[in-house]
Amino acid sequence: MIRFENVTKRYRGTSKPALQSVDFEVQRGEFVFLVGPSGSGKSTCLRMVLREEAPSQGRVVVLGRDLRTVSNRKAPYFRRHIGAVFQDFRLLPTKTVSQNVAFALEVIGASRAFTRQSVPEVLALVGLEGKGKRLPHELSGGEQQRVAIARALVNRPQVLLADEPTGNLDPATSVGIMQLLARINATGTTVLMATHEAGFVDEMQRRVIELHEGEMTRDERHGGYGDTSSLPSLAPGPERGAAAVAALTAVLEVHRETVAGVGMSAEEDVAPAAPVAEHGPSTAAAPERAPENPALRAADPREPALHEPEPPTAAAAAQRQAPADRAEPAAGQAAEAADEGEPADDQTRPFAETPAPLLPDALGLADRLGLGDAGDDEVGPTR
Ligand code: ADP
């Protein structure tokens, strides 16, 4: 599903490579932590999977596609198969929660009907029922990250990349986000998460790929963080550690139950976004692949047209987005319509957590999320 073959990356103007002969393969359905100190190359790896950076040597294959064959024009189309969330959330500050999520569908030309149905579904999946009409600043940091996750999932990607997704969140909130990512993975979505939160990595006992100064120093199936002595202290207080461990124990319980397909709570029972219908040619079985919910794998007539029709350009989307501050965009309307069935939520709760910076530029956001314009070329490079 994701393969790095002897990948070396040298950024222009730097003497030391950011990545040096990195080799690994992630199978479908895996949850993989990418760990290492700051500057070790984690983000570079994720940017390569998104084809935002190209290797200087070696090759990266994602969803069966050698990314050297994906042109700049086609890259945004390729990225639609990959969800991405970041430490700073990257929400549109003047758009409601629903509109932020709907935006990801708008730029791929999904129908209003699909948007109307999908947005509340994915918001329910991430635990934000009834909050579709709020603006990002009316949400806690954890809730904002959930919106970002909802937006990443609404296109039903096969792969979810998470770059320090808990980096701006307090420990208890971080646990909730880890819980959510574990649940998403349990439905079959491959998750590759860069982090230096040692506590989560140790507790979750998932595959760990470790980088040090661009070199891969470890690839362990059921790893912990390993030697944390060189890390900046991210979990300083004993309470924090204890709380995180207790909560993560609960996470693992939930995850075990989910994998076993029993005892799902009402919250977990919400249908998650299913991966897109077509898959890369990888035939290797995932070593720890969670059982799939057949209902999620069934052909879904509501699925957005990832390959056709030709989606509107990101520039067009951005143009719509700009006046949308005054008059709602199409997807915004669909999102509004989607909200209609939700209970009124007047109890706007200002949050105590530190708000993350928000990215106001819709076009930049679309490009960064892999939703931008690829011109009028063919679509569906991962077919
Ligand atoms: P991490 O995510 O582990 O903190 P990064 O992938 O961001 O590491 O960075 C790895 C190395 O590459 C660092 O030395 C960093 O300074 C360098 N680097 C990252 N991005 C660029 C860039 N755009 N130009 C030059 N050097 C970069």
Q: Main traits of this protein?
A:
383 residues; alpha/beta; Rossmann fold; six-stranded mixed beta sheet; four-stranded antiparallel beta sheet; 10 strands; globular; binds adenosine-5'-diphosphate
In the CATH hierarchy, what is the architecture at level 2?
3-Layer(aba) Sandwich
* Average residue-wise pLDDT: 71
Rounded to an integer, what's the Rg over CA atoms? 20 Å
The outline comes out as globular
CATH superfamily: P-loop containing nucleotide triphosphate hydrolases
Percentage beta strand: 5-15%
Helix content: 25-40%
Number of helices: 12
Query: Which small molecules are bound?
Result: adenosine-5'-diphosphate
Number of domains: 1
Report on this model:
By secondary structure, this protein is of the alpha/beta class. It has a single domain, classed as Rossmann fold. The chain has twelve helices and ten strands. Strands 6-7-8-3-9-10 form a six-stranded mixed beta sheet, sandwiched between helices. Strands 2-1-4-5 form a four-stranded antiparallel beta sheet, with helices on one face. A hairpin with a 2-residue loop joins strand 9 and strand 10. Helix 4 packs across helix 5 and helix 6 runs parallel beside helix 8. The radius of gyration is 20 Å and the shape is globular. It starts with a strand and ends in a 15-residue tail after the last helix. The C terminus is likely disordered. Adenosine-5'-diphosphate binds next to helix 1.
